[in-house]
Amino acid sequence: MTVERDTAPASVREAVIELLRGLKMTTVFGNPGSTELPFLDRWPEDFRYVLGLQEASVVGMADGYARATGRAAFCNLHSAAGVGHGLGNIYNAYRNQTPLVISAGQQSRSLLPMNPFLGASEAVSFPKPYVKWSCEPARAEDVPAAIAHAYHVATQRPYGPTFVSIPFDDWRARTRRVPVRTVSSDVAPDPDALDVLAQALNEAQRPVIVAGAEIDQDKAGDAMVALAERIGAPVWAAPFASRVVFPEEHELFAGFLTAAPEAVSRALDGHDVVLVVGAPVFTFHVPGECALFTSGARIFQVSADGDALAAAPAGTGILGSLRQALPALTERVETREQRSPVRMRERPPAPKPDHPIKAEYLLHTLSRLMPREAIVVEEAPVHRPAIQAHLPIRSYGAFHTMASGGLGYSLPASVGIALAEPSRRVVCIIGDGSMMYSLQALWTAVQHRLKLTVIVLNNAGYGALRSFGQVLQVRDAPGFDLPGLDFVALAKGMGCDARQVTQPEDIADALTGAWECTTPFLIDVCVESAVPNLY
Question: Cys-Cys link to 193, which of 204, 318, 406, 506 (CB 3.0-4.6 A)?
């Protein structure tokens, strides 16, 4: 469908504003500089400008907002170095498969041949390969069409960021308005391939499902649960899943696969059909031999990500949007009267309130006291096993982290999610090392009076690095410790209420106080520095 609009000449700025309005991208995330000022001139009243104090925070906030709304988000960065500042979270957005349209200023066209101050050399190439499409229009009048093109590429599966570089003097040039078009992004799976998969599941003695973040992204959670219940198969979360993949208190939820080949093989050993839904086969972090690939088990992968299907080392790939593929598959499979043996996920006992505080006790208390509708955003890699054990996520849409491992994502993402979900409590669980990457995002949360609770798990160091060092048998390496960081002072310096907790008996009181706040609140919890083996 094409929305008919006036195609009479307008300024580039007028045409872009009208286009963004038609695409429902009226919340703009930005950190302005001189090359962006013409875009910001006479800002329209129906648009919201969300200011970030550094470009990494800007991109992270836009990513979180896009995730929570299910729509593409627009962010505006400064020329050259500003894009460089944002590249870490552009990489995260690419791996998260988040639809973003990223624009950046560029110096005036007349100055570009002379390598001017703030000029971006090869601006189109700078964010590659971590954008799906990149452009600096050849003519000023092509800017609105370039942004429309970027939007439609960003919202095609697999979703991802796109980039448009816009010279300073383009905004006042004359152009024609661009119509707002609807372009479908769903991909129907091959019905013959689904027939083969359904037959394999019907004949399987012990099928198993490995579920990934694409399920939640595609709003296909109910369809995933229906399929699992129909075939009575246990469901494992794929390694490093960045969203909820399955309700974690469901009787069929088996647990979380770790990103080690031997561990994946052990967990899936004995299953004759392995169905991977909305995830790669598989995301690993350490090298090793994955015996599953040569075990004789039949592996099927269903995803709208063609690259993930192509990269799989084994199995049959079926390309398709999950909200189409899963219901179609469920219709084809038989209901099992007798389920295959499901190893019930063991619930750990309640941790003790030891001193120093153990992360497990903090997370157990958080799970008990947290508002049921809360959304958890996590960036505490060393504590992820404890989070998975003691903080079960009960519903789709209630958990987010980054798919890439690039730090500096989750605090700004939690701000973007809170902007999109103002009625829900957002809880950001973050390590002390991660906190220092995009700390500036806290200021934006304060300015918008968001219902955001930030819980810093402070073990005075890079805990994940310590753990990985143990796996690699690295000893006496420098750079692991982070003494002397005062997160309460840092938070209060940006207008955010905060308190430190050093005793386990104070955790419940701190959390209860945070829930009563309708503005951001930070809790710095001093936890023991001992680290678990993540693999």
Answer: 318
The mean pLDDT of the chain is 93
Place of tokens 């030891």: 354
Residue 1 one-letter amino acid: M
Q: Kindly give, in sequence order, each residue whose CB lies less than 8 Å from that of residue 462, ignoring residues fewer than 6 positions away.
A: 433, 479, 480, 482
Contact 414, 101 (CB under 8 A): no
What pLDDT score does 410 carry? 97
**What domains does the chain contain, in order, with CATH numbers?**
2-181 (3.40.50.970), 191-332 (3.40.50.1220), 359-526 (3.40.50.970)
Angle CA(450)–CA(455)–CA(456) in degrees, nearest 5? 130
> Packing angle between helix 507-516 and helix 359-369, nearest 10 degrees?
40
Rounded distance between C-alpha atoms, residue 161 and residue 185, angstroms: 15
* Cα torsion through 18, 23, 26, 27, rounded to 10: -150
What's the pTM value of the predicted model, to 2 decimals?
0.94
List the one residue out of 505, 531, 523 whose CA is nearest residue 352. Answer: 505
Which of 351-355, 380-384, 415-419, 466-470 is predicted with the least confidence, judged by mean pLDDT?
466-470
| DSSP string over 441-494 | HHHHHHHTT--EEEEEEE-SB-HHHHHHHHHTT--S-SS-B-TT--HHHHHHHT
Q: Higher-confidence residue: 169 or 119?
A: 169
DSSP 405: -
* pLDDT over threshold 80, residue 473: no
Single out the residue of 274, 262, 271 nearest to residue 317, CA to CA.
Answer: 274
Model confidence over 183-237: pLDDT tens digits?
999 999 999 999 999 999 999 999 999 999 999 999 999 999 999 999 999 999 9
CA atoms within a 13 Å half-sphere pointing along the CA-CB vector of 347? 9
Burial class (CB in 10 A: 0-12, 13-18, 19+), 457: buried
Cα separations (Å) of 514 from 36, 223, 507, 518, 521? 38, 35, 11, 8, 6
Mean pLDDT of 238-267: 96
Sign (positive/negative) of CA torsion 335, 341, 344, 345? negative
Q: Which residue stretches of 155-275 are H helix?
A: 191-203, 214-217, 221-231, 261-268
